[in-house]
Every structure is written in structure tokens, then in C-alpha cells.
């Protein structure tokens, strides 16, 4: 890609951009929440739609000149509705966190109780971490996974009856099993609570019909658009028709001002891609790659958490598997060009700054064309790096092999 104007005008930013581009090409990207967007999506992000103020919604904006912004926002909405079978969609959330904040604001009053997944068991920061704004406004109570990695829905029901939440929340950012949507939404109904699924991590798997769709079961479904869904960085809210007004008002003017129209246009382009048959193949390949990674790591004797994976990622307890901390594991893998993140394990005794686990995801490498054969190689590199005790020569040798593999699978070049 050429950036002729940027190159001439601002060499500092241009240089950083070239570095980042090279990093993304030469490294194995296994952060479970990242992906590579298409060139069409990249192009759309850099368009003049960024110049336009479009407060309001298609057909009812506050400023004039909306004939083309209305077109792209309507396309994004209609395509998202078709992808997920939703009654109403709001595509204006700037990211996943403000989408969740708006969803809470639409249905909850300050002080209301929310039952969500405990953060060390896979729940996201926005599901009640004490440092977040939602946790200061609402009362979050966490439910946990069992030793075998599943959720005990009888226990969840008992907890819901005791805590009397106004919202039962499903969804996660570091959990690897399929949730029982019917059971969770039934529990919410029983206690008179709203139900919400945050599908940020698995939206692409759902769009590609590789895993079940939560939309028919929940009052509200929130998501990011940049993880497995492979669109621009952004958020989105899907909901039942009767909540449409409350959701739209909570997004604007509740939480945000003007929407990012270049991003919304890029969302439309990405959703168009996700509607194509190739995207189903992509989603299925993600599942196969993640399963292969799990099986290979188990062959090497590593401790895969939650009893394995049914989505796009695996969680490893690296303390138990390799006698290294999550932070050390991240460092060793960085040294060989494999990017992952340290992660807490359920009820982690070590705490979040240097936890016991790592999270490894396959959406980005699947986009660049890795299949089972390459995943087996990657598993070998991961195992060798984590067993290396930080030996520099060993890590350098693995790094060379990683670079060679990446060269065979260019992303943008
Ligand atoms: C990533 C994620 C978010 C937050 O998305 P941002 O775009 O980073 O704000 C919210 N919920 C879940 C479950 C996530 O995985």
C-alpha cells in the first residue's frame, strides 16, 4: 500500500506506520481479539465519510447533507439484520465498551443488579470490573464455571433467585466453551430480568454459522465488529423491536455524540463480506484451527483450560504446564514473533499483572491462510519457546522459522 501524501508530509507517523505494517506481516498474530481486515475495509476507513457530522439516525438527522451517509448507515443496518436475524440494529457504537454502556443505560437504573460471568472465569472488563464506570453505577454479581469448564445452570438459577438481577448477562472474552443460550434466557425470564448476550469475541463465528446464533434468545445482543467478524474497529447493538427506541436513545445522545461515518461505511463493507459463502468457510476453518491447536498442545502435555475449545481460542495454564508465569510466557513468545496475551485463569492465585495463563486465538492467522498444517507447526514453536527457559539462541532459531512461515502467507503485500 502507498501513502504518498503522508510520506511527504509527516515522516514520523509514516515511519511508525511502515514499522507496524512490517510487524503485522512478519509476526504470527494470535491475540484472540485481533484480525486483519480486507483492503476494501481499509480503503473505506480512509474516505471522506470521516468529514461528515451525522447526529441522529437515517431519515432523522440534526444536520443537512445526509443523502449518502443515510445510504451507508442503512446498508450496514440491513446487512447486520440479515447476518444475525435481528429485529433492530444500531451500528453507531464507537466500540464494544460504549455499546455495553449504552445497553445497560437503556434498560437499567443506577443501583440495579447485573448477573454476569466472573471476570477471572472469562467475563469481560465491561461486565463489572471495579475500575469501570458501569461497576460504579450498577451492582455486578459474577457467576463461575465448574472444574470441567462448563456452567452449572442449576447453580446459576439459584444465584439469580437469590440476587434478583434486573439483567442476566452472557458473554466472555476468555472462555472457550459454547453457552446454553436457551437456559440462560429462561433463567432471566424466570426472575423477571432482561437477558443480554455480549458476542464480541464470537460474532464472526455466528455470522459464518459455525456456532449457534444467540439473537433469537436474548432481549439485547452487543458486539464488537473488529474481532472474528473482521470489520473495522467498532461496536454494534442488536435488540428486539420493542427495545429499539430505548437502545437508539441510549447510544445517541445517551453515551455518544456524532457517529463515525467512515467506520459505519466500513462496517457495511465488512458485513457484505460476512454475507458471502466464503465467510462460512472462514468461520469453519477457525473452529478447525482452534481444535487442532488444542489437540497439539495437549499432545505436548500442556494444560488446556475449560476442558478444551468450541470456539476460536484456547486458554493455557502456563504455570502448571511449563512452570513459567503468564508474563514470562508472553515475553518468550514475543521473542519468537508469536503475539499472544497473558491472561488470568479461573480464581487465579497470581493476580492480573502476572497471571498464571495465556490466551491464544486463531482468527487472524486463519485470515492469512493458515490451516491445520501450519497450526501444528505453530503449536510446536509455542511448545519449544515455552520450554526454552529463555535461552536466547533457541528463541532466535524459532524466530527464524516463524518469519519464514509468515513469508509464505502474505497479508497485504
Ligand atoms: C472486546 C470486548 C469488549 C470491548 O470492546 P472494545 O471495542 O475494546 O471496547 C466488550 N465485551 C467483550 C466480551 C469483549 O470481548
What does this structure look like?
This protein has two domains: 43-274, Aspartate Aminotransferase, domain 2, CATH 3.40.640.10; 283-407, Aspartate Aminotransferase, domain 1 (Alpha-Beta Complex), CATH 3.90.1150.10. Helices cover 46% and strands 13% of the residues. The protein contains 17 helices and 14 strands. It has a seven-stranded mixed beta sheet with strand order 4-10-9-8-7-5-6, sandwiched between helices. A three-stranded antiparallel beta sheet has the order 11-14-13. Strands 1-12 form a two-stranded parallel sheet. The protein is globular. The mean pLDDT is 97. The protein binds pyridoxal-5'-phosphate. Pyridoxal-5'-phosphate (PLP) is lined by residues 33, 95-97, 100, 124, 126, 171-173, 198, 200-201, 224, 235.
Task: Give the gist of this structure.
The chain is 46% helix and 13% strand. The protein is built from 17 helices and 14 strands. Strands 4-10-9-8-7-5-6 form a seven-stranded mixed β-sheet, sandwiched between helices. It has a three-stranded antiparallel β-sheet with strand order 11-14-13.
List the topology elements.
Elements: H1 4-9, H2 11-26, E1 28-29, H3 39-45, E2 56-57, E3 60-61, H4 67-84, E4 88-90, H5 96-107, E5 113-117, H6 133-137, E6 139-143, H7 153-163, E7 167-171, H8 181-190, E8 194-198, H9 203-207, E9 220-224, E10 235-239, H10 244-255, H11 261-274, H12 277-299, E11 313-317, H13 318-322, H14 326-335, E12 338-339, E13 341-343, E14 357-361, H15 363-367, H16 372-386, H17 392-407
Parallel strand pairs: 1-12, 5-6, 5-7, 7-8, 8-9
Antiparallel strand pairs: 2-3, 4-10, 9-10, 11-14, 13-14
The structure holds pyridoxal-5'-phosphate.
